[in-house]
Write a structure and sequence with these properties.
CATH class of the largest domain: Alpha Beta
CATH architecture of the largest domain: 3-Layer(aba) Sandwich
Largest sheet: 6 strands, mixed
Number of helices: 13
GO molecular function, one term: cysteine synthase activity
Shape: globular
Bound molecules: 4'-deoxy-4'-aminopyridoxal-5'-phosphate
CATH topology of the largest domain: Rossmann fold
Enzyme class: transferase
Pathway: Amino-acid biosynthesis
Number of strands: 10
Structural class: alpha/beta
Cofactor: pyridoxal 5'-phosphate
Keywords: Amino-acid biosynthesis, Pyridoxal phosphate, Transferase, Transit peptide
Distance between the termini: 45 Å
Length: 326
């Protein structure tokens, strides 16, 4: 018998895929963890399940309760799927700049979606602070994915060990971009615990401070990126103490070229952060040489960003590459 226990039984245990085109570019083996195959369509289903399960265990989320979270969308989608399956309501606060597809999905799932202007973290109107205040005012549970380390603990217990075991212990390096830092920190901790020689590297878009934090000790953010769900200007509790060896900066143009090649050459339709991750994995593989086995995260699918990443009318005014077949 192989019967999953409801929706939550289908989260995680995603396939690890050898990416042929990317491996040829890198001159070594590049592996992608197919997180777009989670039921809510992204790696954030894992964080949602970990945050909810931890809150239930601590008794801070009661039967029939409400979950509030600030999110670029995917964590909200994960929380609403798991919330529906376990009898919780969700209030999701999201910057209005995020993709229409994610907003539509959240409404479809039944989330109470509150869109707010995209302002920096230091502004009290930032989506994270708005979500915290709603939780305080209503007595609901604030998931707090950025600074609640149940997030990275989930990746330490599932994503990291899966990558190590599925590669048969052959993985030599790992790279991923940072939103909350839960994925990068949790996976890196699990891999280093199994083999301290595994190189763990942050992939960082423009407009994010993680590259400078790792290179100089101070997060400094310059420029901007059209990718969603990644980029961070501070050291979150989930990122703090992550065993990282280096950082790689990837431009939007480079990530888009990788996304289009992954679709045309390997048949994979992926989102922007997966483009950043695979671009960084290729460069890391080129640095490390032909024996390297570099794993990364295919965070979500491209249909969620059709109106942006695969839309020439959106890309051309930004002077960004467009899908060659469109
Ligand atoms: N990619 C996408 C598409 C995301 O939504 C997120 C989460 N914000 C990430 C990557 C980053 O994951 P994490 O929060 O674990 O750093």
């Amino acid at each position: 018998m192989d019967i999953k226990s409801g929706l939550t039984g289908t989260i995680g245990n995603t396939p690890l895929i050898r990416l042929d085109w990317a491996s040829r570019q890198a001159g070594c083996t590049i592996l992608g963890k197919a997180e777009f195959l989670n039921p809510g369509g992204s790696v954030k289903d894992r964080a949602a399940l970990a945050l909810i399960t931890d809150a239930e265990r601590r008794g801070v989320l009661k039967p029939g309760g409400t979950i509030v979270e600030g999110t670029a969308g995917n964590t909200g989608i994960g929380l609403t799927h798991v919330g529906n399956a376990r009898g919780y309501k969700t209030i999701i606060v999201m910057p209005e700049t995020q993709s229409q597809e994610k907003k539509d999905t959240l409404r479809l799932l039944g989330a109470d979606l509150r869109l707010v202007p995209a302002v920096p973290f230091k502004d009290p109107g930032n989506y994270v602070h708005v979500s915290r205040r709603i939780a305080e005012e209503t007595g609901a549970f604030w998931a707090n994915q950025f600074d609640n380390t149940a997030n990275r603990q989930g990746h330490m217990e599932t994503t990291g060990p899966e990558i190590y075991d599925q590669s048969g212990g052959t993985v030599t390096a790992f790279t991923a971009a940072v939103g909350t830092g839960g994925t990068l920190a949790g996976v890196s901790m699990a891999l280093k615990a199994r083999n301290p020689a595994i190189r763990c590297v942050a992939a960082d878009p423009h407009g994010s401070g993680i590259y400078d934090w790792i290179k100089t000790g101070t997060p400094k953010a310059e420029g901007s990126s059209i990718t969603e769900g990644i980029g961070q200007g501070r050291v979150t509790a989930n990122l703090d103490g992550a065993p990282l060896d280096d950082a790689i900066r990837v431009s939007d143009a480079e990530a888009l070229e990788v996304l289009y090649a992954l679709l045309q050459q390997d048949g994979l339709l992926l989102g922007g952060s997966a483009g950043i991750n695979v671009a960084a994995a290729i460069r890391l593989g080129q640095q490390l040489g032909p024996d390297a086995v570099v794993a990364t995260i295919l965070c979500d699918g491209g249909a969620r960003y059709q109106s942006k990443l695969f839309n020439p009318d959106f890309l051309r005014p930004l002077n960004l590459p467009t899908p060659p077949w469109l």
